């Protein structure tokens, strides 16, 4: 399995699942363009990847709540490359709360902006580079919270709204861009554990049996599988279910 000739943009790459994605795809040989809310966070992940001997890695600041920052990020990427083969919309704020009144107005606005508007504007501003590729894929980490009728025990209503916005956007985008050869791939995982360090031995020892919660590695494997299929194979979405009712989520919000 090799992505040695792919150029990939990953948002939210400064920590947790985005950091794991960055290490995984860099390890497969892809040239990775890492975005995080602060340049320092993106640079930390970049430094780790460089230390592992992968030289094709770039770091950028991109505040998904700020349209001007998104435009500046896309412009900076365009100065480094003439195409993007894969965009992974991973960055989005998680908001927890027992009821609507539990979050401030600012937290609600930030959650909607990062997950909803941010995803749309990043895709919009990078679309010219994606259309310059002969195998463009847009991958969006939505959530089970974006599935109609699904319920999460801790998610705030604003988080649901942001994830439903992502789902509606990716559905429309898939329809619009399919004639141009762009595959729009959405993932709808429940909570999954991305707390393990991808650089540690603990990462490879993650339990992945039928009675275990969904692992971050399994979600990454789905993305890898989808983007490496021939262009006649279009996997539009991944929906996840537990093999056993005893397999419950542990940490990272889906």
Describe what this molecule looks like in 3D:
This protein is of the alpha/beta class. Helix content is 41%, strand content 13%. The protein has seven helices and seven strands; from the N terminus they run E-H-E-H-E-H-E-H-E-H-E-H-H-E. It has helices at 16-27, 39-51, 67-80, 105-131, 157-177, 201-204, 216-227, and strands at residues 7-10, 31-36, 57-61, 86-89, 137-141, 183-188, 237-239. A seven-stranded parallel sheet has the order 3-2-1-4-5-6-7, with helices on both faces. Helix 1 (16-27) links the parallel strand 1 and strand 2. Helix 3 (67-80) packs parallel to helix 4 and helix 4 (105-131) packs parallel to helix 5 (157-177). It is globular and about 45 Å long. The protein starts with 6 loop residues before the first strand and ends in a 15-residue tail after the last strand. The model is unreliable at 246-251 (pLDDT under 50).
The fraction of residues in strands falls at 5-15%
Terminal Cα separation, in Å?
27 Å
Trace the largest sheet across and list its strands.
3-2-1-4-5-6-7
Share of helix, binned: 40-55%
H and E string: EHEHEHEHEHEHHE
Derived from helix and strand composition plus strand pairing, the structural class reads: alpha/beta
Q: What is the average per-residue confidence, as pLDDT, rounded to a whole number?
A: 93
Identify the overall geometry. Answer: globular
Please work out how many helical segments DSSP would assign.
7
Give the biggest sheet. Answer: 7 strands, parallel
Radius of gyration: 17 Å
Low-pLDDT parts are 246-251
Task: Say how many strands there are.
Answer: 7
Pfam family, one: adh_short
Protein name: SDR family oxidoreductase
Family: Belongs to the short-chain dehydrogenases/reductases (SDR) family.
Keywords: Oxidoreductase
């Amino acid at each position: 399995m090799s992505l040695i000739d792919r150029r990939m943009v990953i948002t939210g790459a400064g920590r947790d699942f985005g950091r794991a994605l960055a290490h995984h795809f860099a390890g497969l040989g892809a040239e990775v363009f890492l975005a995080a809310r602060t340049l320092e966070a993106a640079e930390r992940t970049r430094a780790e990847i460089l230390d592992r001997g992968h030289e094709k890695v770039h770091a950028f600041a991109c505040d998904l709540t700020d349209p001007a920052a998104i435009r500046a990020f896309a412009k900076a990427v365009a100065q480094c490359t003439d195409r993007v083969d894969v965009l992974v919309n991973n960055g989005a704020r998680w908001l927890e709360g027992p009821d609507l009144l539990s979050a401030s107005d600012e937290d609600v606005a930030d959650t909607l902006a990062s997950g909803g508007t941010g995803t749309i504007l990043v895709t919009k501003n990078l679309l010219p580079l994606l259309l310059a590729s002969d195998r463009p894929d847009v991958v969006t980490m939505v959530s089970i919270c974006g599935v109609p009728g699904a319920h999460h025990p801790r998610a705030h209503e604003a988080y649901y709204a942001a994830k439903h916005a992502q789902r509606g956007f990716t559905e429309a985008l898939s329809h619009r861009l399919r004639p141009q050869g762009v595959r729009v791939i959405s993932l709808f995982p429940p909570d999954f554990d991305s707390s393990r360090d991808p650089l540690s031995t603990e990462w490879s020892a993650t339990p992945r049996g039928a009675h275990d919660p969904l692992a971050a590695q399994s979600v990454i494997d789905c993305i890898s599988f989808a983007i490496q299929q021939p262009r006649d194979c279009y996997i539009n979405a991944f929906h996840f279910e537990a093999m056993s009712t005893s397999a419950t989520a542990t940490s990272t919000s889906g």
